[in-house]
C-alpha cells in the first residue's frame, strides 16, 4: 500500500456536448432489444450490499455483476456484438431492429451478407466478445493481444474459433496493427472498442451496446426502491465504457444527474492525466503500462467518450494495483449477510477505490470532494468475474498482490 491513490477534480472547460446523443435513450433501447433476442440473454444481477454500505458509512451500495454476461464472464460482448450487427445491418440495407439474433444467424442472411473478417485488438475481454459473436454469425475474427497478455486469456479467444496472437507491443500499438490489417484485407473490418479521429461510427455502436448494462442497472435500482443513485463509479481503460455509462445516466436523469467518478489503473491513467492538465485536450500514457488491471491498461482515450467525460465527470481517480486487489477480496468475502461477488482485477477497481476513500483518513478530502456520506447511494459495475482464474486465486485466496 505504499503507492497512494491520485486524483484530479474535473475543472476542464465544457464543450457543446455533441456526443451525448450517442447514448440517447432510444439508441440504447435498440441495443437492449438486440441483446434480448439472444438465447443466452439474461439480465445480470444487481447485488445490494447493505452491511457493507453501513460499514463504509454509506446509505446504499449496489454492484452490477457482469460475471454472468452470456457465459463470457465480462460485459464486453455487449459492445462488439451490437456493433457487428449494426455493421451488417448497414451493409444489407436494414435497420438493426430488423436483425434479431434469429435473423442474423440464419442461412438466408449469411448468404446475402457473405463473409467478412473482423479485426480487433484486446486485453482479452473485448476480443473474446468479438470472437464469440463472429463465431455465432458465421464470420471470421482476427485478434491481437498486447505484450504480457496471459495464455488463459488467449485460449479463451482461440476457443471461440478466432485467429489470435500475443504481440510484442502495447495495447494501443495492437489497435494500430489491427486497423492496418483490416485496411489491407478484402472485406476486412476493424471492430475496435475505442474511437479516434476518422473512426467513430463503430465505436459509438460499441458504446451503445454497453448501454444495455446501464439500462438494466437503472431498472434494477428502481426495483430496489432506489429512484436514482447519488453516485456512479465506473472504471476506464480507453473510456468507452465510462462514456457509455456516464452518457446513459446523464440522459436518463437530465435534471438531476448522479455524481460521476471515473477510476483508472494508475499505470495507464490517461484520462486522469488529461483532467489534471485541465485544458480539455486528451493526454496519452505510453510504454508497457504494467498493472494487474489488464482491462484498464490502455493509454489513449476514446475521442468520443473524452468529450462526454469532460462535460459530466466530477473526479478522475488513478488507482494503484492494491486498490483493485483489496476490492476483489472485499467483494469475494463481504460482511456476513451480504452476497459475495466474484470480481476480477478490472471489475473490482472502483469498489476498491470507494472502500479506500471511505475508510482511510488520508482520503478524507477526496471523500468530501465527491460528496460521499451516509446519504449516498452508490452504483458500481463489476465488469468482469475471474477472467484470469489463476491470478484471481493468487489474489483472493493466497492474499498476493498479483
Ligand atoms: C473488465 C473490463 N472492465 C473495464 C474495461 C474498460 O473499458 P474501456 O476500455 O472502454 O474504458 C475493460 C476493457 O477492456 C474491461 O475488460
From TrEMBL:
- Residue span(s) of domain Tryptophan synthase beta chain-like PALP: 40-354
CDD domains this protein is in? Trp-synth-beta_II
- What Gene Ontology molecular-function terms does this entry list? diaminopropionate ammonia-lyase activity; pyridoxal phosphate binding
Q: Which GO terms describe its biological process?
A: alpha-amino acid metabolic process
Provide an example Pfam family for this protein: PALP
Instruction: Tell me the keywords, alphabetical order.
Output: Lyase, Pyridoxal phosphate
* Record carries keyword Transmembrane helix: no
Q: Which cofactor does it need?
A: pyridoxal 5'-phosphate
In its keyword annotation, does this UniProt entry include NAD?
no
Q: What is this protein called?
A: Diaminopropionate ammonia-lyase
Amino acid at each position: 500500500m505504499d503507492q497512494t491513490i491520485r486524483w484530479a477534480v474535473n475543472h476542464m472547460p465544457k464543450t457543446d456536448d455533441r456526443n451525448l446523443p450517442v447514448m440517447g435513450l432510444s439508441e440504447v433501447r435498440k441495443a437492449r432489444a438486440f441483446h434480448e433476442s439472444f438465447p443466452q440473454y439474461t439480465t445480470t444481477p444487481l447485488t445490494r450490499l447493505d452491511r457493507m454500505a453501513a460499514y463504509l458509512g454509506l446509505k446504499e451500495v449496489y454492484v452490477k455483476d457482469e460475471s454472468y454476461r452470456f457465459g463470457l464472464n465480462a460485459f464486453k460482448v455487449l459492445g462488439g456484438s451490437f456493433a457487428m450487427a449494426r455493421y451488417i445491418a448497414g451493409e444489407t440495407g436494414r435497420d438493426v431492429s430488423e436483425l434479431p439474433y434469429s435473423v442474423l444467424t440464419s442461412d438466408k442472411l449469411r448468404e446475402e451478407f457473405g463473409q467478412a473478417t473482423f479485426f480487433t485488438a484486446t486485453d482479452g475481454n473485448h476480443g473474446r466478445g468479438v470472437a464469440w459473436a463472429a463465431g455465432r454469425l458465421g464470420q471470421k475474427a482476427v485478434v491481437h493481444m498486447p505484450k504480457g497478455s496471459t495464455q488463459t486469456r488467449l485460449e479463451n479467444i482461440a476457443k471461440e474459433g478466432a485467429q489470435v496472437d500475443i504481440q510484442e507491443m502495447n495495447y494501443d500499438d495492437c489497435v494500430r496493427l489491427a486497423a492496418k490489417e483490416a485496411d489491407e484485407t478484402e472485406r476486412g473490418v476493424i471492430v475496435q472498442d475505442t474511437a479516434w479521429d476518422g473512426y467513430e461510427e463503430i465505436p459509438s455502436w460499441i458504446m451503445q451496446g454497453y448501454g444495455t448494462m446501464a439500462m438494466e442497472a437503472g431498472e434494477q435500482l428502481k426495483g430496489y426502491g432506489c429512484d436514482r443513485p447519488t453516485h456512479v463509479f465506473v472504471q476506464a481503460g480507453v473510456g468507452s465504457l465510462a462514456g457509455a455509462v456516464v452518457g446513459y445516466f446523464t440522459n436518463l436523469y437530465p435534471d438531476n444527474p448522479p455524481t460521476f467518478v471515473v477510476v483508472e489503473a494508475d499505470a495507464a491513467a490517461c484520462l486522469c492525466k488529461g483532467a489534471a492538465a485541465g485544458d480539455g485536450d486528451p493526454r496519452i500514457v505510453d510504454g508497457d503500462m504494467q498493472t494487474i488491471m489488464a482491462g484498464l491498461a490502455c493509454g489513449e482515450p476514446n475521442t468520443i467518450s473524452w468529450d462526454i467525460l469532460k462535460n459530466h465527470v466530477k473526479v478522475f481517480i488513478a488507482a494503484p494495483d492494491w486498490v483493485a486487489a483489496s476490492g476483489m477480496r472485499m467483494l469475494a468475502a463481504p460482511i456476513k449477510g451480504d452476497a459475495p461477488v466474484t470480481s476480477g482485477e478490472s471489475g473490482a477497481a472502483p469498489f476498491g477505490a470507494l472502500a479506500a476513500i471511505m475508510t482511510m483518513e488520508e482520503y478524507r478530502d477526496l471523500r468530501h470532494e465527491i460528496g460521499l456520506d451516509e446519504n449516498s447511494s452508490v452504483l458500481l459495475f463489476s465488469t468482469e468475474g475471474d477472467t484470469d482464474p489463476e491470478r484471481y486465486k493468487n489474489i483472493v485466496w493466497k492474499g498476493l498482490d498479483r
